[in-house]
Each structure stands twice: as structure tokens, then as C-alpha cells.
Amino acid sequence: MPSYILKRLLSMIPVLFGLSVIVFLVMAMIPGDPAIAILGAYATPENVARINSDLGLDKPLVQQYFIWIGNVLQGDFGRSFALNRPVLDEVLERFRATLVLAGVALVLCSVIGLVAGVVSAVRQFGWVDKVITFVVLAGISVPSFWLGLILILLFAVKWRLLPASGMYAVYGGGDLKDLLLHLILPAFTLAVVAAGVIARLTRAAMLEVLRQDFIRTARAKGLPERSVIYRHAFRAALVSVIPVIGIQAGFVLGGAVYIETVFQWPGVGAMLVKAISTRDILLVQGGVLVVAGSYVFFNLIADVVQTMLDPRIRT
Amino acid sequence: MKRLFQRAAVAAAFALVGFTAAAQTPPNVLIVGQIAEPQSLDPHAVTATNDFRILVNLYDGLVRYKDGTLEVEPALAESWTISDDGKTYTFKLREGVTFHDGSAFDATAVKFNFDRMLKEDHPFHDTGPFPLSFNFASIDAVNVIDDNTVEFQLKEAFAPFLSNLAYPTGLIVSPAAVEEHGQEFGRHPSGTGPFKFAEWQSNQLVAAERNEDYWDGAPALEAVVFRPITDSNTRVAEMLAGGIDVMVEVPPDNLASFKSDANFSVTEQAGPHVWFSILNTKEGPFADKRVRQAANYAVNKETLVNDVLQGTATVAAGPIPPAFNWVESSVEPYPYDPEKAKALLAEAGVENPELTFYVTEGGSGMLNPVVMGAAIQADLQAVGFDVSIESYEWNTFLGRVNAGLEGQADMAEMAWMTNDPDTVPYLTLRTDAQPENGGFNSGYYSNPEVDKLLDQARTSTDQAERGRLYGDVQQIVHDDAPWLFVANWKQNAVTTAAVQGFKLQPSFLLHLKDVSK
């Protein structure tokens, strides 16, 4: 197992390297440059040239890339043009916030999704199944930013139960309780769509497993139905659901972009959107590498868990 | 791990049960909902109005705009004299002022500020870039006469100089803080302003506390907190939920409901902003003045400002916004007259001229550019123009438009905000400001008389004479119609009823010293 994990970790390197080249090229190809973004209406060719030379952007593209990658290998991700601060400071600060939000949302959507999936499979075609299927479908179909806004209007504006936006209260906050209060709405909104996908998949996997011989055997042995479903069927179904949860981790990280904007969550998604529109190439690079790295990492964890659950894959 | 989980579970349960109103702002602290996180709190390094709103509360300039006007009054400088040739400005500095970090404000500090921006060999020039430093490009040298006297030598007479000093790019930063923090100064700002910087949490808030020793009297508020809330719907929701006390740039759609609610108070203020479409006077149908005038008659500006912008703007008459009330001009906007437009087109001998119209999807000061573009297109089509719209994302758009419209388009949306009537015409309407000379005259307008008037107005130090000269510019440019003149934006803000003394300034700056809650 350790050698498998090591191999997977090593395979991340070319992925991230390739990604950095692609991001660099794409950012170089889209029209407009950081100097125009900084200067706005004042972007005369003369001013643009002055700012570009201050930023080191007058050098050839290939040279710029190698300067950047050389610095990254020494742990220096450069400075953001727009924010005028080290990229690493900004990205790590933002990424912490994204991890909190995405992590809670992932746990939430896994629990909701698995429970809903199992229950609706066990009660196939019953009214519980129909209700769950309907809710799940609605959850998948609702645009998340819209759902977020509706929740803000209900819980923050109408009933005044929860804060409308942000991560901590401006005054007197900063503790765990404060964080949780601010987390409820965005984490729930983010979890809804992913939960729907997991629920549908769990239902299908459970139905498939429940039709198999070993379940019939277990029932024939006289095992209690609870034990049949949770100890045997659920465990077997989990093998095919786990990789999807891994993929949902990526969705939750990426989908956080809208949610972060609507809830003004200080995460990496909202940062990336702004960085792209201001052509802040080094910040985009830093943000993308961190998000992609964690995506690959979550998938690795999902694979490892799957291997542990399913003896057939272990070799 | 288990303990952590238990604590989390307990806290969650406690949170769900034991609480009432979530968002209540604390007394005597003003929470301002901003449209974005500031780029930096170094006033010389930023360009956005959003950032200026914070900066003018942390820093002072040598001069500032008098309350409610765009006229200049003393601030860190108590008085000044201008030499007869308009090239030497001597400022007498206020004594006994210290920066928030404790260092003294004096003539050496003033010199440091301008040298850092303008001199490439200055040891702290690398703490930039300083995108708007060209506002001070006319400075030849800054000389320290004594501790409290500083002299600016200009290369040539330049009338907007004082006004540029009052603009946020002229705010004075603490040299000691720049020396200590270097490139990180923008995150550790220190000035002389009514509020002292306290903390900056990335994308969450910038907080500043009352400066008890402020030379112009300590502010009433204990602290101000600026919260970036980029999504305008969320900003409105946060205002309704009581999480913020002030919100700027209210979407036009929400303005009416705030106005009719006694819990809120709406403030509006016209500013030096102009929204227009550049017309390509070099080639195509708009090379003919009559066709340009026809376009101005064809578009129903009243509908645009009242329906599309829902009353958040007024109709523009020419290139100089009415906020510069000392400019002597009686020019009225082109009336909406489609028949006259058709007659002018017939006179020019063009029946169905084809036009390419560049529209942007958003951008600083652009209001609602997509809908505005579509409405303008519809009005132009109604009198016989055949308009096709090409729309671009803001930075791409600027890249195309600033390069000049020749060979690309016949018209393009644009908007400017400025601090002096010189800036916009000088940068966008002079013959020498055409794109190949590094200016913004993307429509290639050229009128030697306008060129002459602008040169005169920028070197004259007599305000009344300048007012007359810009009035002439307004009249001639209105008649020549190198632009489709559309709107002058009124900025707006909403406060809770508890907020007292809140004012918007024509400069678009936000002074919070005299606000209380």
C-alpha cells in the first residue's frame, strides 16, 4: 500500500507541471494584459509599457515561464500584480477558507446522499422513495447561486436567524460558534447538488447489490434485515460510490466559486475569478495549482479507501 | 480528534438554540459595504474609486476638495503661493502633525512621497508600480525649503496641478512606514488621516480606528469597517439584514424599495462622470458631421437614464460633466428628434449606413453597458442606421478601443470619471491625443480650435478664465459631435436611519470623519 500511495503522489508531479504550462499559455493567449487591468481607462500604450516593464512582463513568454517555474521550485510563487502581495500568502489564506467550506459541504453531502440513497433503495417505489427521488432531482436542478440567495433572503433577511454573508462576524466574532453560524447556509447550498448526485448513485448501487446472490444467502441464513442491508449490502455498494465522492470533492472545490461569490466567502474560488479578470497570471497559477493539487489528493484518498473496502482491487 | 468533534457538536447545538438576532452592528462603529476588496492601501499604487473611499479616511493630501464641491482647500498645507509664470508652487505646511506611526510630517516627507512615485532611481521606487503617477508628470523637482515649506517646480504651467494634489494619488504616506515595510506597505498603511489603520483580513474586512490626535478634530465614530461584498444582490441582502450600516453603489433596481422604507435613507450625488459612445470620425458614415449629429438626435437619452438606469443618471450635453459647476456653459443636450435625424441622414446622402458598435460587458463606471448598447442600437435602427453590436469583456474591450477604432468599428461605448475638466478632453479629444501618439482619442476627432482652447485652459491659473475656456470647448465639441453624448451618472448610497451626517461628495470620495451613529 505505501508504495502504491507513493506512486500516485509521484504521478501528481507531471500533472501539475502540465497544468502550469496550460494555465500560463491560456492566460497569455486571452486578450488584455495586467497593465490594462491595472490602468483601466488610463491604459495608454506609454503607461502600459511603463507598468509592464515594472512588472517584468516585457520579457519573452518562454523566459517569463522559466523564471516563474525556477522561483516556484525554490518555494517562491511570486507577487500578485493586482494585490501587490506574495501569491503564496494570499492563496494559503484563501485556501484555508475554501477547505473549511468545501470540507464541511463534502461531509454534509456524503451523509445526506448516502442516507437518502440507501433509504430510497430499500423502499424502492414506496412513497418515501418517490419523495426522496423528487427532492434529489430538484436539488440537482436548482442553480446553486440562486438557492444561496433564496436562503439568504429567508434565513438572514426575513427571519434574522443566520448571518447573510462572510466567514466571521465583523465584531465580537472569531470563535468556532461564529464560524459555524456563517458556515451553515453556504455549506448547505454547496452540499445540495453534490448530495443529489451521490444519492442517485447510492440508490442505483444498492439496488444492484440487493439483487445479488450473497444477499439472498444472508437473508436465507436468517440474518436480521438491518444487518443484511447495512453490514453486507451497504458495504458492497460503497465500493462503487466512494470514487464518486472523490469526484464530488473536486466539484465541491470548483463549485465553491459561485457559492463563495454569493456568500462573500473569502475562499480561493472567488479569488481566482477576480484574478482571471484582472489578468493576474501569477495569482491564477498559484490558485490553480493548489486547487488542482488538492483535487488530485482527494481522489487519491478516495482510491485508497476504495482499495481498503474492496479486497479485489487490493493487489 | 474526538474531543474536537465533541466541541464542534456542542458548539453547533448551542449555536442553533441559543441565539436571536445574528447581524446587529455594534454602536459607534460604522460598517460600510464596499463593492470589492481594495487592491492595496498605498494611495499611490491604486486606481479604483472603491479603494479611494477607504484611503481618504486614512490619509490627507496637501490640499483637499471643499465639502460638496470640486474646489480645492487647504489640508496638510495651510497655504500656498503660485509664481506668476505658474511654474512654481510653494506650500506652507501645517506644523505639529504626525503620522499614525509616530513619525513627523514635514517637508522632507512630502519630497519623499513624490520622489518615490516619479524618480526611477529612488530607493523605494520599486514599491510600486504607480499607475497614476502621470498625474504629476509635470513636476520637475520637489525642493525642501525648510521643515515646513516645500516647493514644487513644474516643467510648464499646469492648471490642474492643485486639483490633482487633492486627488487620492496626492495623499501623503509615512516615509518611515514605507522604509519599514517596503513592498508590503500597502498592507501596513500609515498616514495622517482621521482614522488609523487597524487590520486587514483578506477579502473579509479592512478596519480603521479613530485618530484621537487628528489635526482637524477627532472623528465621532470609534471605528469604521469596510467589508467587500462583490455580489450586488448579497450587498442588498446584507443591508436589509442589518449586517452593514452603509452600502455604496446600490443597483438601480433596488433603489426605489430603499427609498420607500423608513428604516433606510438614500443619498444621491452627481459626480464628474460622463458616459458616451466614441464615434469614428476618420472613416465610414461618422466621418460626416451631419451623420454624427443625426445619431445624437436619434437616441432617446431620457429613456436611457430614466428607464434603463432608473433615474440614477442625467442626460449629458457634452464632454464636460455639469458637476464642474464653475465651467460657464449653457449648452443643452441634443433633444430626442428622430425626424431631424432622418432629415440629416438624407442631407448627408446616406440612407442606411452600416455601423459596427463595440459594447462592453461591464467595467468601471460603465453602468449597464449591455442594455444601454441594445437600447442605443434600437434607436439608431429606427432612423435607418444598420447597427451590428460586437461585445467584449472589459479588459479585451479596452485593449481594442484604446488602440483606435480605425478599421475595426464605427462607435464604441466609454465612460470617464475625473477630478478636473482638463483631464477628459485633453486625453480624448485633442489632435495630439490620437492613439498613435499615446492618447485616448480613439475616434480621431481633430479641431485646431479645441486644441488651442485646451492648451490655454491648462496653463491659465485664473479659474474664471478657465471656466470660460472650458465653456467654449463644451459648445464646440457639442456641435462637432465626435461622441454620442449620453449620461452623467449620479452615485448613490443607502444608510440605515441611525446613521447621521453621511454625505456623498462630487469627487466620488467618501469622507467619514463627520459621520455618527
Automatic annotation (TrEMBL), chain A:
The places in or outside the cell where this protein is found are:
Cell membrane
Question: What Gene3D superfamilies does its record include?
Answer: MetI-like
Annotated TM spans: 12-30, 95-119, 131-159, 179-201, 236-259, 281-305
One GO MF term, please? dipeptide transmembrane transporter activity
Topology in the membrane?
Answer: Multi-pass membrane protein
- The reply on keyword Transmembrane helix is yes
Q: Identify one Gene Ontology CC term for this UniProt entry.
A: plasma membrane
Q: Which UniProt keywords apply?
A: Cell membrane, Membrane, Transmembrane, Transmembrane helix, Transport
Q: Where is the ABC transmembrane type-1 domain?
A: 95-301
User: From which domain of life does this come?
Assistant: Bacteria
Q: Which family, according to UniProt?
A: Belongs to the binding-protein-dependent transport system permease family.
Q: What is this protein called?
A: Glutathione ABC transporter permease
The source organism is: Pseudorhizobium pelagicum
UniProtKB/TrEMBL annotation, chain B:
CDD domains linked to this entry = PBP2_DppA_like
- UniProt xrefs under SUPFAM superfamilies: Periplasmic binding protein-like II (SSF53850)
Signal peptide range equals 1-23
Q: Which GO terms describe its biological process?
A: peptide transport
Recorded superkingdom:
Bacteria
Q: Which residues form the Solute-binding protein family domain?
A: 71-431
Q: Which terms in the Gene Ontology molecular function aspect does this entry carry?
A: peptide transmembrane transporter activity
The places in or outside the cell where this protein is found are: Periplasm
Q: Which Gene3D superfamilies match?
A: Dipeptide-binding Protein, Domain 1 (3.90.76.10), Dipeptide-binding Protein, Domain 3 (3.10.105.10), Periplasmic binding protein-like II (3.40.190.10)
Pfam family for this entry, one: SBP_bac_5
| Chief location category | periplasm
Is Transmembrane found in the keyword set? no
GO cellular component annotations, sorted alphabetically? ATP-binding cassette (ABC) transporter complex; outer membrane-bounded periplasmic space
Q: Which UniProt keywords apply?
A: Signal, Transport
Write down the PANTHER family for this protein, in alphabetical order: OLIGOPEPTIDE-BINDING PROTEIN APPA, PERIPLASMIC BINDING COMPONENT OF ABC TRANSPORTER
Q: So what family is this one in? A: Belongs to the bacterial solute-binding protein 5 family.
What is this protein's name?
Peptide ABC transporter substrate-binding protein
